[in-house]
From TrEMBL:
A matching Pfam family: Fer2
Domain 2Fe-2S ferredoxin-type per the UniProt entry, residue ranges: 1-77
Protein name: Xanthine dehydrogenase YagT iron-sulfur-binding subunit
Highest taxon listed in the record's lineage: Bacteria
InterPro entries cross-referenced by the UniProt entry: 2Fe-2S-bd, 2Fe-2S-bd_dom_sf, 2Fe-2S_ferredoxin-like_sf, 2Fe-2S_ferredoxin-type, 2Fe2S_fd_BS, Aldehyde_Oxdr_Iron-Sulfur, Beta-grasp_dom_sf
Keywords in alphabetical order: 2Fe-2S, Iron, Iron-sulfur, Metal-binding, Oxidoreductase
SUPFAM superfamilies: 2Fe-2S ferredoxin-like, CO dehydrogenase ISP C-domain like
Entry keyword Hydrolase: no
Single Gene Ontology MF annotation: 2 iron, 2 sulfur cluster binding
Organism annotation: Hoeflea marina
Length: 168
C-alpha cells in the first residue's frame, strides 16, 4: 500500500503492507530509529511521536492511517548541535539514565507543554480555564503514559518544569 507521510517536515513515500504500524514504518522502512519499541502494546510510551500536534503511541496505529499527516519524531525536535529547550533541560536535570525511554519522554513532554499553553486541563487540574500550574502532580498526571524503568521521574519532572519556565 502506498502512503505519503510528512515526517519532520520531509515528505516520505512509503510502500508497506497495510498492517504496518507507524512505529515499524518509522524504524524499519524509513530508518528513523530514535522512536523506540518498548512494550508494543501502548503501555510504556517509548514509541511516542507527535501527529498533527497531538502525541500518540506509534505502536498502536497503522502507518496507512496517517497518509498526509504531519508527524514529528525525536529526530525532528532538535539536533546534536541545536538541542531544543526541552532536550537541554533533560541534559541539565539528568532526566535520563539508560536513555531508552528518553525519545518518547521528550516527544510526549514537547506536546504536553503545547497542551498546557493551549489551556487544556488534565484530570488533576485545579481549574478548567486558562493554563494550569505545572505542579509535580500536574506534570506526573500528564506524563503518566510514559514509563521509565530507571525511575528518573524526579529529574524528568524537573526538566519539564525548567523547560516550561524558560519557554515562558
Amino acid at each position: 500500500m502506498h502512503t505519503q507521510l510528512t515526517i519532520n517536515g520531509e515528505n516520505h513515500d512509503l510502500e508497506a503492507d497495510e498492517r504496518t504500524t507507524l512505529l515499524d514504518a518509522l524504524r524499519q522502512h524509513l530508518r528513523l530509529t530514535g522512536t523506540k519499541k518498548g512494550c508494543d502494546h501502548g503501555q510504556c510510551g517509548a514509541c511516542t511521536v507527535i501527529v498533527n500536534g497531538r502525541r500518540i503511541n506509534s505502536c498502536l496505529t497503522l502507518a496507512c492511517m496517517h497518509d498526509g499527516d504531519e508527524i514529528v519524531t525525536i529526530e525532528g525536535i532538535g539536533t546534536a548541535t541545536d538541542l531544543s529547550v526541552l532536550q537541554q533541560a533533560f541534559l541539565s536535570a539528568d532526566g535520563f539514565q539508560c536513555g531508552y525511554c528518553t525519545p518518547g519522554q521528550i516527544c510526549s513532554a514537547t506536546a504536553m507543554l503545547e497542551e498546557v499553553k493551549a489551556g487544556w486541563p488534565s484530570h488533576v487540574s485545579d481549574r478548567l480555564d486558562g493554563a494550569p500550574e505545572l505542579s509535580d502532580e500536574e506534570i506526573g498526571e500528564r506524563m503518566s503514559g510514559n514509563l521509565c524503568r530507571c525511575a528518573c521521574y524526579p529529574n524528568i519532572v524537573a526538566a519539564i518544569r525548567a523547560a516550561a519556565g524558560s519557554a515562558a
